[in-house]
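Regression test case RT-17, inverse folding.

Input:
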């Protein structure tokens, strides 16, 4: 096995409890050098908060290894040459504004512009 993708909810944790054998399974995957990432459908919290929540259950998760819908959308847009500007505020909600107008806690997307311009 070269890589695996774990669903956080129901596979690694259930509510605020780690699932049985989750820590042992992750330790084995790491000991074998298997590339692994974690997925979630959560869109209301940043990856750092999600990783911290799982860490409090005794499972170490790097925030950069957590894949969320906003992360997937951002990568997809960047691959297509769309300039993506991340705007953060106190909220964790992401909004995509195709007209370039960002809400204060959103992810602003301006289509048709090369990345970085």
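Golden output:
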């Amino acid at each position: 096995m070269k890589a695996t993708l774990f669903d956080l909810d129901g596979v690694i944790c259930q509510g605020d409890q780690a699932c049985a054998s989750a820590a042992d399974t992750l330790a084995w995957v790491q000991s074998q050098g298997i590339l692994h990432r974690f997925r979630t459908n959560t869109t209301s919290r940043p990856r750092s908060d999600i990783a911290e929540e799982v860490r409090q259950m005794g499972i170490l998760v790097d925030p950069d290894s957590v894949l969320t819908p906003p992360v997937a959308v951002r990568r997809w847009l960047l691959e297509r040459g769309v300039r993506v500007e991340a705007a953060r505020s106190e909220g964790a909600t992401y909004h995509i504004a195709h007209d370039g107008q960002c809400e204060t806690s959103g992810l602003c997307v301006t289509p048709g512009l090369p990345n970085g311009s």
